[in-house]
User: Fold this.
Amino acid sequence: MTGLRDARLHKALESAPDGDMRPAERVRREILAKAHQAVAPASAVPWWKALWESAGRRNSPWNAAFATLVIAGFVTVLWFDREVPGPLPETTQAGAPVPSAATPAPPVPPAAPAPTSAAETASPATTAPAQIKPAKPATDAATRAAQSRPAEMAQARKSEPALSARQSGPAQEAAGGAEPARERRADTKSLRDEDTRALAKSAQPQAEAAAPATAPLQGSVGAAAGTAAAPRAAPMARPAAPVQAAPAAPAPAPVIAPQRDAMASGWTHAKVSVGGREVEVERSQAGRLAALLGAIERGPRGEDPLEGPVALKIELSEQGAPVDALEVVGAQVRWARLRAGQRSSFVAKPEPAQLQALQAEVNRLTGR
Amino acid sequence: PSSEDTAFWRAAGRQLLQCLDELPEAQRAAFLLHHEDGASVEDLAQRLGLQFETAKSRLRYALQKLRGCMRRYLKVLETPA
Assistant:
């Protein structure tokens, strides 16, 4: 026993009840160390050191944070000099652009018969690979029809010298037919936007300017008889004039939307008879036919008795049941409604441009 | 050791625990660190953050109180068997 250490008290302490249940020496030392750390003054450790020490703990997701920063930096570098893609314009339905192109304009009728006759006198060799047949898939026909219109407008404006140069035999006719098709597909999107903006502008007195502008074009088209571009030049010329004349037309004209196509909402099949040829197509393959028929139905009525042979006949049916029957006689259309309980008839007097567009569409469907 | 010795030390240990509960915390810590952990006075002073003499005096006071509390048992040990 020393002055400060008493062996008797030491032995009594070891012999105390539950004395052998003390924790291991190492555990007791750890507990003491933690206890001292807990009561240590906070100011003893600087804040940056405490943060650094806490970073070393396993429960801190520093690796995940670093990986997130790396990925964010990588994405930023990738997209640094690229524009963020904005909303794309909605793809127009097959019938949407047609009513705007078929909108009648006063200057158009005088020149319309010229390209029409040019189209009718075109040789059979003008059947180019780009001609759409009714048997083709519906989506393919609808897409190509929507694409062809703005492409045709642009080509009418830009390729006037090219049209006049295409006076050749069947070999060049086929090649010339293939080239417009490729150009149409390449310029579809930009031309569609450009034309939509042009059509949506307010009315201005451009009809007179449009007539002389289109006259030489149509004249050149008429001169290029027998060329591959002639049949498509006819619709090119006609849409070109309506495009330029549309601002002069009544304001609602360019904005003929599919929802106004009330008439054609009930038919699923159309049987077209023209020039001794007859073809039946589904509505999805009919391209602009539905929109054209709807525009004719909404157009002015005629009261004159129809005289002359039937140039074109269209029979509309829905799931096998007849719905409507149209007969184009001269410049008017005899329209007969054949639905059970709704039988009636009237005479429509569409604009010449509408009739020409309908004729062109029928020709396309029948492969003429 | 005989059972009587074991019982005696067990009772003494129980009494010592009661005496330790009556000690102030500082003195109790000093006693336990010195006797149970085997820390020297220097270690004791360092652990408790005290001066050497302060640690020494605390330990002395603790022993003095415990010996008084354990007087009966210590007297038995001093008496020759």
User: Anything to note?
Assistant: The CA atoms of residues 30 and 59 of chain B lie 6 Å apart. Chain B touches chain A at residues 6, 9-10, 12-17, 34-37, 41, 47, 56, 59-60, 63, 66-67, 70, 73-74, 77 (CB under 8 Å). The helical segments of chain B are 3-22, 25-35, 41-48, 52-69, 71-78.
